[in-house]
Amino acid sequence: MDNLKDKALFRPFAFIDGNWVAADSGEQIEVDNPATGETIARVPRMGEKETLRAIEAAHAAFPAWSARTALERADILNRWYELMMEHQEDLGRLMTLEQGKPKKEAEGEIAYAASFMRWYAEEARRVYGDTIPGAKGNQRIVVLKQPVGVVGAITPWNFPSSMITRKAAAALAAGCPIVIKPASQTPLSATALAVLAERAGVPRGVFNVLPGSAGEIAGAMTSSPMVRKITFTGSTGVGSTLMANAAENIQKISLELGGNAPFIVFEDADLDAAVEGALASKFRNAGQTCVCTNRFLVQSGVINAFCEKLAAAMNRELVVGDGMKEGVTVGPMIDENAVEKMSEHVQDAIDKGGELMLGGQPHSKGGRFYMPTLINGATSEMKVASEETFGPLAAVFSFDTEDEALTMANDTEYGLAAYFYSRDIGRVWRVAERLEYGMVGINEGLISNAAAPFGGVKASGLGREGSKYGLEEYLETKYLCMNIG
Ligand SMILES: NC(=O)C1=CN([C@@H]2O[C@H](COP(=O)(O)OP(=O)(O)OC[C@H]3O[C@@H](n4cnc5c(N)ncnc54)[C@H](OP(=O)(O)O)[C@@H]3O)[C@@H](O)[C@H]2O)C=CC1
Ligand SMILES: O=C(O)CCCC(=O)O
């Protein structure tokens, strides 16, 4: 952390009600650098009691925060945005150290994370109500949008900053305070955001960060009637448990869960553009992104050409190594379990007849590095067909007809992101409409931005984040029936 320009951004504590605190028990969690395995920090392991205190602080802060004008809240979010961009390099460095993604990609995530602050600063001022003609001559119907109340957020390690700001910026813009549990592997990006929140003028109690025990913190959030909204990004299993637990207090819930993204390449596609999109969609964050392509479905007439071009591009563009090193484009995987899952999917595909074209093994330097891998001849019996690999494996399946491609693409419990490449306008509409996914990239491999509604269908989740729709998740609708005599 010695290399940070602003050393105060390294804050290995929890942030509750404007105070930097340790766990009541004194227990800590070790945070390591996935590139080296070295321990880089110890943060408090907060539990149920501390979480209840944070919820109470947030609840106490709610009336004053929600009573501020939208413009006042927007000004604070804008200041926070500016501070994030001023400290982009330091925040990126912290992220690379705890998460592993290459420095340039980490700085890119900081800009992406900050963009939610700016977006929701603007949206805060556009929370409109409605008037509706009354059912009786002397009645008027007025619809108000009001903040839902205290929000409990649980976020993953793969996007340590943006998964927080995508939730927090919308919540704060709507007038809701938030209590956040960041992933245990990446708490430092979260606490650095809290340092900047304080500097931006976010009042105490409005933004709280508690690294710690997932079970205890989530339990406190779902069992407290003060928490009116739960928002989660992570695995489908945990999301489903949270949803069941949130039922106890009928809490509103948004879930952004796993995916199994298909990337369809039709014979009429621009193959070079498809390969460029494939690289971006598959290898961002070493394949550890819920919208990463999991299955390449390529029409039989172009499958060999596509694979050759993809292999050449992977050889040219993908450099594996420590994300702090200049020129590295694929960092380490987050932990040994992730490497194991990747190895298991690759071996399973090879055992079941897949043709290994590139990679297929951990990097010779060992540790958590895995070589970007390309396997042609993938089939529906392979694990990669039905499970999210969450790693740098490009598995290529063949299809003959549009109908077959759609059947294969939709043959999954998930429905987060899908991509396809085609230059036939009729096909573009037909395929876009029939894909059972919340987001579809058409001749485009990078679909995430603050203006767009991010989210999935089926086992990939509920609700949307980003865009004007993301603000709705933090608002309640109240109807006033006025008798005017
Ligand atoms: N949609 C997405 O973006 C993501 C999908 N995934 C998928 O999930 C797989 C497993 O990754 P993993 O990190 O284990 O994902 P998890 O769902 O376990 O972790 C995400 C967040 O949930 C927390 N959490 C863990 N257990 C519970 C619980 N019982 N109740 C409430 N919160 C909990 C974690 O805390 P803690 O860190 O303390 O365990 C973390 O903050 C990946 O391989 C990938 O397939 C993973 C991350 C993001
Ligand atoms: O993997 C995730 O859950 C976050 C996706 C990052 C993004 O593209 O917004």
TrEMBL record:
Note the superkingdom of the native organism: Bacteria
The record's keywords, sorted A to Z, are: Oxidoreductase
Q: Which is one Gene Ontology cellular component term of this protein?
A: cytosol
Spell out the molecular function terms from Gene Ontology.
succinate-semialdehyde dehydrogenase (NAD+) activity
GO terms in the biological process aspect are: gamma-aminobutyric acid catabolic process
Q: Where is the active site?
A: E256
Aldehyde dehydrogenase domain residues are 20-479
InterPro entries (alphabetical): Ald_DH/histidinol_DH, Ald_DH_C, Ald_DH_CS_CYS, Ald_DH_CS_GLU, Ald_DH_N, Aldehyde_DH_dom, Aldehyde_DH_Superfamily, Succ_semiAld_DH
Family, per the entry? Belongs to the aldehyde dehydrogenase family.
Q: What NCBIfam families does the database record attribute to this sequence? A: SSADH (TIGR01780)
- Kindly provide the name given to this protein in its UniProt entry: NAD-dependent succinate-semialdehyde dehydrogenase
Record organism: Larsenimonas rhizosphaerae
